[in-house]
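Predict structure. Chain length: 197.
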Amino acid sequence: MSSSKSALIIGLGGITASGKTTMCKSLEHLFSSEKYNLHIKSLHMDDYYRSDDDPHQKYLEKFDQIDWDCLDAIDTDRFLVDLQSLRLTCDILLVEGFLIFNIPLPWKNYRLFNLAYYFDLPYEECRQRRSRRNSRSPLRHDYFEKHAWHAHIKAKKEAFEQNKDIGLEIVDTTKESFEKIQDKIIKDIETVLKHYS
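Prediction complete.
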């Protein structure tokens, strides 16, 4: 690809514990291999969580803890600055995170993602996967049921309302295998790359 062009940007967003990070790492490995010989970078929203004592954090008295499932918990300004910088230094930029499609963009009439995938899960599967995770902060046992799940439902609705123009595509690893979803995304990227060459 021409170094004068900005990167092809692939958005991998959606619900917690749905396979976004695993997909991102797999795609990064594949497209940086000899088969494609492309310069790939990835940006992970989880790296932009604010510190516990950051004044932007939203404290939930009901659960006696910080709300880790809202945009206030993320330094979105720094995230967007890094995204804009990274897109000029690679061929493909993989952007991964649970609220990447919910960040209000400061640029009008600007389409950020060339391809965008919303990873979704049904409630019970999401609850089970999240309970097996090591969380960055101890969570009350009812935090997921009484807060996080509802926050994700709201975020999903808003993500699709905010991104009607980008063709946000739902993927669900409980309905199709990870490999089948990955093959579909690879083909989509290959198709778009032909126009970027």
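Summary: The beta strands are 8-14, 40-44, 59-60, 65-66, 92-97, 115-119, 169-171.
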